[in-house]
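To whoever is on call:

I kicked off a structure prediction for a single chain this morning and the downstream step that reads the tokens threw a length-mismatch warning. I double-checked the sequence; it's 380 residues and nothing unusual in it as far as I can see. Pasting both halves so you can look.
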Amino acid sequence: MAASKTPACWKLAPHTGAKLALIGAYLAAWFPILSRSGAEHIIYIDGFAGPGNYIDGEDGSPIVALKALGVRGNQVRASFHFHFVERMRRMALALDGNIAALRAANGIPHNAVIRIHARTTFAEAFEATIGPELARFPGAPAFALVDPFGWTGIPMAIMQRLMTRPRTELLVNFMFEEVNRFLNHPDQPKNFDELFGCENWRQGYSLAGPARRKFLHDLYQQQLHTVAGAKYVRSFEMVNERGASDYFLFFATNNLLGLSKMKEAMWKVDPGGGARFSDTTNPDQLVLLAPEPDRHLLRRQLVERFSGKRVRVADVERFVLEDTAFHAGHYKKVLGELEKTDSLTVPLPPRNRRTCTFPDAMMVLEFVQSPSGPLLLKQE
């Protein structure tokens, strides 16, 4: 495909910039981990790629992904397979030009195989090319970014085919506002059947406002678990500078390390323009992912879960990753605060252990029975 000088046609919105920062931060961790895993092939899929840049020159998602790999890809034996799907021909041409420019600047490793799927939808490209390649390399780790403009062309059946692979991860932009607006439209039942992979979404007809929002969010999350088969699913709501929700991002994986790295990436996103993410996996524990975590909330969650029990540090970490909005870098400081207030003890501390440090995952902790009143963490 020849390079094109077709300009980008979109201005980068703050919430989109935050989403791209998230993708870049996650892939910057994902690529090195997989490079060290011994995998021979690593597959990256962008189902709605766009031209690769914005009006003011900011990188689009394909260039963000390629830059996250960078030249360090030359240092490993794996082949990196990039699939960029872009239905509009002029956008695909512009993307080809942006990739060519990055390659000319030596920004793409020699072992990166890049394919632009032009004039085709994500579903069509998956059936024709991407799916067969995944079948050819069944053990290859894969990451799929599914970031549509609306709700069509991302059937749950494809999410299921992706997640049956044990080393595949999925980031889906669920465009709630558009789904909500057209839910009752007489022309859309087939599209919504495909999106959700069931007919239960029709129960949303009679709902409105927050009740419908919660219902559609929970249904899609449930379908990623039960139909697609993802072991771990977390949802993140993009809250714009006006405090309104723009969309939900659903991350699905079968790997606890992948979940940990996605959480770390989420907490790192700079809220440029006022746009922030909120963890919405559990509607009873909505957490705004601000620069500093709410350690009081995490403390309450740990005390409620482990009060009066003996557990290993590894058990605490697993609980934090699987059942809270926080990541593994947050809980040890909270454990230290609990030890300072005598709410936690270490019955058999390792030799030379410093107080309020937890270097050994197998180290046993004893949580004192929770008192009737709240424990306050020390403010820094």
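Update from on-call: the warning came from a stale cache, not from the record. Cleared it. Sanity check on the structure: The chain has two domains: 14-288, 295-367.
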